[in-house]
Amino acid sequence: MIRIFLLFALITSAFASDVQRYRWKNGETFLLFLEKNSLPLKQLYYDLDKDDQRLTEEMRSGIHYQILRDSNQTIKQVLLPLNDELQIHIYQDKGSYAFEAIPIISTTRTESFTTTITHSPNYNILKETGSKKLAQIFIASFKNSLNFKNDIRKGDKLVMIYDQKYRLGEVFSMPTLKVAMIEMRKKRHFIYLNDDDRYYDEKGHEVEGFLLARPVRGARVSSHFTKRRYHPVLKKWKAHLGMDYAARRGTPVVAAGSGKVIYAARLGSYGNLIKIRHNDGYETRYAHLKSFRRGIYRGKYVKKGQTIGYVGTTGRSTGPHLHFELRKHGRAINPLRVVQVTTKKLKGKERKAFLTLKKNYDESVNLHLANKTQFKKLPKFTGKCYVHSLECQANG
Ligand SMILES: [Zn+2]
């Protein structure tokens, strides 16, 4: 880590150039990106280990990234965010270029607003905030419990409290909903994010969204999902974009949800891999399989809970386990939020803790309603951002 900061310091003094911001285009690959910018493929891709190579596949269209050039237009540094916590850092080093994965520094603000319905929650949230993401999150939260089409009336009210990340002065990544409330015909409906990272309604019943079955029955989770993790032995940052279930070789693996098999073959470090496409942009992946169940092939429809293959240790794996991934529109998400153990009803101590959290949130919601809290647009950022310090300075 010290090396990086030294490097940043050097650049600070030698090049006071600012940073150009770009958007990752649809269909662009990491190799294409390197070629386009005349960056060396060997050092920055072919010489990398398998894990780092796999990380480069995580770049998705629409992502904003930064390039720092000196006054001769030579690339000094590139920052490519892989998710909201980890980024690829390419930097000039001894006349060539080097690759590393480093954490993203961002700040989080808790934001909130209330709005009165004139048309629909979707329309009014968009009108108030200009954010499609917030509208989507709100609608999805009540999708299985309320019927907005039939039951909403003009003058009904809603409140959202959520965390928003900012990076280099810009809104960054999906907001995390903490509370959503809608008052329909004088009755209030809530959703709360609890300390266990799951969503509950006002009665302390878990809110069912897209629920997945556990892909290996009764298996222990041996490694959790993480967008970034420091490997103390290799001394580098990695991501684990799935969950590992430890199980004996040959243990049946079941489809976590109904859908269509879109891949069933070997794939690099994944080993024997099955990918299943589900509704609403969800996809699940099952890796390191010993073998596929007979009759499971690309194009086949499977039901939730149906056996599709068997636990093994093919590909890059240190022992028999299932590596399970959940993706939404290509983005890896934490399966824990959606994997069904049993739908949870909070009891005892857990319920007591939830009720305290709920009480605090309810007070906030009441305050926002009373104050008619408006969505605060941050003033458009016109300052400069510096890659070397990962800091921004406002102009003037
Ligand atoms: Zn894994």
Overview of this structure, please?
It is built from eight helices and 25 strands. With 396 residues, the chain is α+β, with helices and mostly antiparallel strands. It has three domains: 2-104, Nuclear Transport Factor 2, Chain: A, CATH 3.10.450.350; 107-208 and 344-371, Nuclear Transport Factor 2, Chain: A, CATH 3.10.450.350; 220-337, Glucose Permease (Domain IIA), CATH 2.70.70. 27% of the residues are buried. Mean pLDDT is 86; it is low at 1-16. Bound molecules: zinc ion (ZN). Zinc ion (ZN) is lined by residues 223, 240, 242, 244, 323.
Specify the helix fraction band. 10-25%
Q: Number of folding domains? A: 3
Q: Tell me the number of strands.
A: 25
Under CATH, the topology of the largest domain can be stated as Nuclear Transport Factor 2, Chain: A
Class from helix and strand fractions: alpha+beta
| Distinct ligands, ions and cofactors found in the model | zinc ion
Highest CATH level, the class of the largest domain: Alpha Beta
CATH architectural arrangement of the largest domain: Roll
Question: Helix count?
Answer: 8
- pLDDT under 50 segments (min length 5)? 1-16
What's the Cα radius of gyration? 24 Å
